[in-house]
Amino acid sequence: MKPLLELRGLGVCYNGAVAPALEGVDLDLAAGERLAIIGESGSGKSTLARAISGLLPQTARLQGTVAWPGLDHPARNGRDIGFVFQDPASSLDPVMSVGDQVAEVAHANLDIDWGAARRLAVELLDRVKLPEPEALARAYPHQLSGGQKQRVVIAAAIVACPKLLIADEATSALDTIVQAEIVALIRRFVAEDGMALLFVSHDIALAANLADRIAVFRHGRMVEMAATAELLARPRSDYSRALLAAHLGLKAHSGASR
Amino acid sequence: MSALLQVEGLSKRYWRGDRDFSALDGISFSIAPGETLALVGPSGSGKSTVARILLRLVEPDAGSIRFNGEELLGLRGAALRATRTKLQMVFQDPLAAFNPRATVARLIDDPLRIHGIVGRADRPKAIAALLERVGLAAELASRRVHEISGGQRQRVAIARALATRPALIVLDEALSALDVLVRGDILNLLAELQRDEGVAYLFISHDLGAVRAVAHRIAIMDSGRIVEEGDAAAVIAAPASATGRALVAATPELPVFPRLPVFKETVS
Fold first, then answer.
1. Chain B residues whose beta carbon lies within 8 Å of the beta carbon of residue A258
2. Which parts of the sequence belong to the ABC transporter domain (chain A) (predicted)?
3. What is the β-pairing status of strands B36-40 and B62-67?
4. Residue A207 φ then ψ, to 5°
């Protein structure tokens, strides 16, 4: 079967940078597959997500190819790709009601009028488990908590039923309890809507609970990619082993203990 | 053992729009010398308000804070400055907390000079010793804060806090912005400093995994109250409060997979 997304020799060099941000990445993503991209700061993980969705600055130099064998047209953001960023406050327009922001994505990408788009937006706000979605649709971003704002962003990202959902550190600005709720939401939507997921994170444990495969990045290169169970049981690189060892969980054997 | 820090009935209300809400609703806790107490809770539970009040950056509406046997809330001027040497803070984002154009040496020199800890002639040596203490090369002294990495910056923040030989350091989400490998190194550094110098920590975090690695005791906060407090291992093993249970359940764990059949071992 044709993969949804195919990266070959993908490299990115930002204007003025000495070293490339991303180098020689080969990657296939199947339809409906959940892939985690793990790395620390400067690993190139966010650059990868941006290169896939065409969100790199125009001055960045791109090498290699980003192809969409699973689509019969070039991928369009909003329609084919939904994007959830780390900071929901900067993803949302501060002077537009949250209902209209979700409706705008629906109106722009689905062939429906504004009335239908607004009704669909309320449905979506309900689906991301926001309380009283009809009243909340009229609220502005500043009236919502960080977790509620991220739910709105997810609603906007999935309203047009994209084939790929990209979550770039989507839970890093949230507290642990809200993070668990947002991850549960993403897991459910990916399963229910059959979307592929690119889950970009620094947290290997969080990713391992969500992804079928994990790709570990460091200094702009893919260090290792394997099925989640395989990577956890038998990491091939020292770097993956170090990341796994650095995880601080609550079980007696995990992490550095005093 | 008598407490180093004894907080009683601390309350703080803020106005938000047209109504006021209680950021802190009469909380009490204590920290012994050389001990680490973790304040853990979801966003908005009041953790950072506690830190700000301890540092006298915010005045509470009610309550008392005894530090080293002295009422902290009554102190003004020179007496407050003198006490501050014993009570230091490390923030989440040192780049926001520091003058970005200052050199590392200047940042560490500030507390040494302002509080008269070390004479002018001996300060370069004292700065080098503090950098070494936190695992940084002395050559870093001439670099500017924006030129060094996030992990190095947080080490500088710790060196600066240590400069005045404090009895208590408040760490407000001090590890949250660091890469995971760097976070492990800083955790080890904090444990080592505590062992060698007997400094106590108030470790404020929403991350129970990091808390488990450093804290002796845990106080769990929600909506301005401490809803549970106890020995760190006991609270994590069997949280009694709903918030404690939610925090434990929400902490990501590496999933344990059944051992996969090995068809062929390859040596790489």
1. 191, 213-214
2. 7-244
3. unpaired
4. -65, -40
CATH of domain B5-86+166-248: 3.40.50.300
Please write the tens of the pLDDT for every residue from A157-215: 999 999 999 999 999 888 999 999 999 999 999 999 999 999 999 999 999 999 999 99
Complex ipTM above 0.95? Answer: no
Residue B125 distance to chain A (closest CA, Å): 32
- Residue A253, classified by CB atoms within 10 Å of its CB into exposed (0-12), middle (13-18) or buried (19+), is exposed
**Domain ranges within chain B, ordered by starting residue:** 5-86+166-248, 100-164
Per-residue buried b or exposed e for B1-14, using 16+ beta carbons within 10 Å of the residue's own CB = eebbbbbeebbbee
Residue A134 to residues A124, B189, B266: CA-CA distances in angstroms?
A: 10, 51, 58
Interface contact A204-B254, CB threshold 8 A: yes
Give the domains, in start order, of chain A with CATH numbers: 76-162 (3.40.50.300)
Q: Are B216 and B184 in contact (CB under 8 A)?
A: no
Distance CA(A78)–CA(A165), nearest Å, equals 10
Which residue of chain B comes nearest to A247, CA vs CA? B180
